[in-house]
């Protein structure tokens, strides 16, 4: 069975500092990995995905993520956090031939001024 | 147009009411999804439509009835709901086939309260 873990319920970072939101996965086979962000009272918004190829994926709003097969991780990063990045972040995994995504529990990111 | 729209934004209904949630997209996507989301939790998949046919029903109670009238529209008919059904209901769409490497585009959701 596939699973996704986001080990931190909340991440706090000061504006201007780099941020990392962690995601690890447990699957057999080759996963497709996604990051979504959810602002208060809104739907989820796609940030980036890894399918194959270059392990460093760049996405929207200056976010990037690195696929690490040996550590089964797909951490989300940004070099310089903004207060407006404060939101709930979900990591998700999908597979070829499967219609569903498996979501992590979510990590709340709080960026302080 | 890269937007998924959902109506209404908010809905309050009694346990004996019948209501419907609507979702629309004009991105040419042939896969559409209904999710239920409780506060600060990940979305839970309810239904998947692929090419206007129901392909996945995640053991959802029959008081929820989905409908896909055409490739742009998705409805969720509600009847005899329970208070525990109160949640944010999210619609999403993606290129077909559903899932796999296709990212999903989400609507803003309908906040449902069942009294």
Description:
Chain A is globular, with a radius of gyration of 13 Å. Chain A has no helices and 12 strands. In chain A, strands 2, 5, 6, 10, 11 and 12 form a 6-stranded mixed sheet that branches. Chain A has a 4-stranded antiparallel sheet with strand order 3-9-8-7, with no helix packed on it. Chain A has 113 residues and is mostly beta strands. In chain B, β5 (44-50) and β6 (53-57) form a beta hairpin. Chain B has strands spanning 4-7, 10-13, 18-25, 31-37, 44-50, 53-57, 64-70, 73-79, 87-94, 105-106, 110-114. The mean pLDDT of chain B is 94. Chain B is an all-beta fold and 115 residues long. The chains are: A mainly beta (113), B mainly beta (115).
Oligomer: heterodimer
Question: How does the major sheet of chain A shape up?
Answer: 6 strands, mixed
Secondary structure tally, helices of chain A: 0
Q: Gap between N and C termini of chain A, in Å?
A: 41 Å
Order of helices and strands of chain B: EEEEEEEEEEE
What is the percent of helical residues of chain A? under 10%
SS-based class of chain B: mainly beta
- Indicate the low-confidence ranges of chain A by residue numbers: none
Computed Rg of chain A: 13 Å
The geometry of chain B reads as globular
Number of strands of chain A: 12
| Distinct helical segment count of chain B | 0
Please bin the fraction of helical residues of chain B. under 10%
> Rg of chain B to the nearest angstrom?
13 Å
Q: Approximately what portion of the residues of chain B adopt beta-strand conformation?
A: over 45%
Biggest beta sheet attributes of chain B? 7 strands, mixed
Name the chain pair with the biggest interface and residue counts per chain.
A-B, 26 and 27 residues
